[in-house]
Amino acid sequence: MLSPDVQARPAGPLNPMLSTPQLQAIATLAARRAGEHVLANLHRRGDVNSVLRTDVKHKLDVEAQETATAVILSAFPDHAILGEETCDAPLPESDTVWIIDPIDGTINFFHGLPWWCCSVAVRFKGQAVAGAVFIPEMHQMYEATFDGPALCNGVPIQVSKTDRIDLAILATGADKWDLGEHAFRFMRKVSEIGQRPRILGAAAVDMCMVAAGKLDGYFESGIYVWDMAAASLIVERAGGQCEILKAYPKHRMAFLATNGGVHAACRDALLPLLNV
Ligand code: IPD
C-alpha cells in the first residue's frame, strides 16, 4: 500500500480557484528558471558556504531556491513553500504546499558532473498534484500531474517491463547522515539482489530514469521529501510504484521507487533491514 506521502490522487476536489494545468505550468517554470539560473552561473561551481565529507552547502542552491520561490509566489502569493534551503523555517498555513529542491545532487554539481537537477512539486491537502524535474545539463524536463501522463520534454514516458530482480538495474545512494555499517548493509543487499548497482548521486534524477525505463528501481535508506516529491509523482504516472518504507522525523525517509515489476522483490529484501 502506498504511503499518503506519495499517493498521486488528491484527497478531495482541488480548490476551484486552482487548475491543475496552471499548477503544472508554474511548477515547470519554477524548475526551469532555477536551473537556468544555475546554468548561467556554471563558472561559480566552487562558490560554496561549506564543503563537508557528506555534503556541500552551495550558494547557488540558495539562489536557485529564491528563483523558484519568486516564480511560485508571483503566481500564488498565499501558498506555502517548503524548500531544502529553508526547511527549518515554520510553514505558513495553507492547503497548498510547494516543495523545492533547488539543486538535487549538489555534490555532483560541485565536482562538475552533469547528474543534478532542480525539482519542484505542489501538493494540495498533502496529496501530490503536479511536479517538474529539470535536468539542465542533460536538457531534459520531466513533468507529471496526478491525472495525466508522465512526460520528458513533452513526450510521454513509461517505466521498464523488467520483472526479474536478478536482471534489474537498481540505483541506490550514500545516506548523508549514515556512512557507517548500517548504510553498507543496504548497499550490499541492493548488490546481492539485482545487476551490479549504480550510485549516481541525485535521487530525483535517478527516479526520473526509473520513470523513463532506463533504471528498473531506486532505493535509498535516507532521503528527504524534497528529493522525492516531484519525481515520485513522475514515476507513478509513468506506470511505476513508489513507497516510503520507513518515515523519520524532519522529512526524512527510506524510499523505494520501481517499475512495479520488481517492487515486491526489492521491498521484501530491503524492509527487514530497516527494522534491525
Ligand atoms: C542528495 C542527493 C543524493 C542522495 C542524498 C540526497 P542533495 O540531495 O539526492 O543522491 O544520496 O540522500 O540528500 O543534498 O544533493 O539535494
Describe the structure in your own words:
With 276 residues, this protein is α+β, with helices and mostly antiparallel strands. It folds into two domains: 153 residues, 2-Layer Sandwich (Fructose-1,6-Bisphosphatase, Chain A, domain 1); 111 residues, D-Maltodextrin-Binding Protein, domain 2, CATH 3.40.190.80. A seven-stranded mixed sheet has the order 3-4-5-6-7-8-9, sandwiched between helices. A five-stranded mixed sheet has the order 11-10-12-14-13, sandwiched between helices. Strands 1-2 form a two-stranded antiparallel sheet. β7 and β8 form a beta hairpin. The N terminus is likely disordered. The protein binds D-MYO-inositol-1-phosphate. The site of D-MYO-inositol-1-phosphate (IPD) has 17 residues, from β4 and β12.
